[in-house]
């Protein structure tokens, strides 16, 4: 449909642009998956006005070929776009249908932008600093987004059911948008790397810290895939002793879980 619009055979350019942008937005939150990460630059470009300026059919064709391999990785439970065939969306027109939750991808983008402007919020600072959240913190963050018109109750509900790095909830959803403070991440692993670790081991931990800063959480299973295996082909098992692997993965999971509310924290 987009290609036809560019060739003057369709007047639905804006509609096509919106659909493709929604797909790119949904994929932009999945860059922790190596297959998606390889196309991160293209995905980010599609979300800019510059990419759409002077757009040509060959450019669209290249984008279609690259993204059709990964569009299926959008979470089915929170998928903002229902499509019969992504290849057809950027090619010949077919019955592409937007679901009732079609605005969720846009909500994530708006939420990311809004939160970046409110980093001084107490609960949000706790989230970015890796400090345990309380249920009240989560309620305040939900209220803030709703009152600002960033999202709807349905968006919040979908976000609460989103799972990142084996942790489910609104807190981890928000952490995936705002990332983790670099100083907090470094401090969390400081004791682990202080005990005479090699340069390769320190570099591997640094890669994990970098991922946490950008994505907020990291699934331990990812450490056994690219780009981490580009540094250590066997993942952490190949550069750390068994006991060290256990300690390292425990620290990773501990940091991930700080994005989930600590129910006991409100008891007092």
From TrEMBL:
Domain EcoEI R protein C-terminal, residue spans: 106-253
InterPro entries: EcoEI_R_C_dom, Helicase_Restrict-Modif_Enz
A GO term from the CC aspect: cytosol
GO MF: catalytic activity; DNA binding
Pfam families according to UniProt: EcoEI_R_C (PF08463)
GO biological process, one term: DNA modification
Stored PANTHER family: ATP-DEPENDENT HELICASE IRC3-RELATED, TYPE I RESTRICTION ENZYME ECOKI R PROTEIN
Protein name: EcoEI R protein C-terminal domain-containing protein
Lineage, top ranks: unclassified sequences, metagenomes, ecological metagenomes
């Amino acid at each position: 449909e987009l290609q036809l619009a560019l060739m003057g055979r369709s007047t639905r350019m804006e509609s096509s642009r919106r659909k493709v942008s929604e797909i790119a937005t949904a994929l932009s939150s999945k860059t922790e998956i190596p297959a998606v990460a390889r196309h991160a630059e293209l995905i980010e470009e599609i979300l800019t006005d510059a990419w759409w300026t002077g757009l040509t059919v060959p450019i669209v064709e290249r984008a279609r070929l690259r993204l059709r391999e990964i569009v299926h990785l959008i979470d089915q439970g929170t998928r903002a776009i229902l499509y019969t065939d992504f290849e057809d969306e950027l090619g010949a027109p077919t019955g592409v249908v937007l679901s009732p939750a079609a605005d969720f991808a846009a909500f994530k983008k708006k939420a990311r932008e809004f939160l970046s402007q409110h980093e001084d919020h107490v609960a949000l600072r706790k989230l970015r600093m890796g400090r345990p959240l309380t249920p009240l913190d989560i309620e305040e963050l939900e209220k803030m987004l709703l009152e600002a018109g960033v999202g709807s109750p349905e968006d919040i509900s979908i976000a609460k059911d989103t799972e990142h790095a084996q942790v489910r909830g609104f807190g981890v959803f928000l952490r995936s948008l705002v990332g983790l403070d670099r100083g907090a991440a470094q401090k969390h692993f400081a004791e682990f790397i202080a005990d005479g670790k090699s340069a390769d081991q320190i570099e591997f931990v640094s890669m994990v810290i970098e991922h946490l800063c950008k994505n907020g959480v990291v699934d331990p299973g990812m450490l056994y895939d690219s780009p981490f295996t580009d540094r250590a082909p066997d993942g952490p098992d190949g550069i750390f002793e068994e006991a060290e692997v256990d300690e390292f993965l425990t620290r990773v999971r501990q940091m991930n879980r700080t994005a989930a509310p600590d129910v006991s924290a409100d008891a007092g």
